Description:
Layout: H1 7-20, H2 24-43, H3 53-65, H4 70-89, H5 116-124
GO molecular function: DNA binding
InterPro entries: CB, Integrase_recombinase_N, Integrase_SAM-like_N
Pfam families: Phage_int_SAM_1 (PF02899)
Amino acid sequence: xxxxxxxxxxxxxxxxxxxxxxxxxxxxxxxxxxxxxxxxxxxxxxxxxxxxxxxxxxxxxxxxxxxxxxxxxxxxxxxxxxxxxxxxxxxxxxxxxxxxxxxxxxxxxxxxxxxxxxxxxxxxxxxxxxxxx
Length: 133
């Protein structure tokens, strides 16, 4: 599936840059996510501004089925929420289709464990010739 840009994506990202000063990386990620979503919509003959809640839920399910990571899906949903709120504010849509769509559950990252060499270095670090060592 090809990512397909849309003029409204560019307008939204320009507004984000002006209003919130988001980093280039965040805007690039949102652009990529929304263009991929637009390509997915085009395959289903749905126009980006007219995508409804059910279509967005279908896309979220598609992302799960295609092994997208939860953090990437959460980023997509965050970008989509901002995009559809922008369209609502600009009176280009009447209802925000992302309302009442929950963010994917993100597990807490596991702590990194020490290697055997790190443990050895920690144990060797105290100066045993000193009382507090």
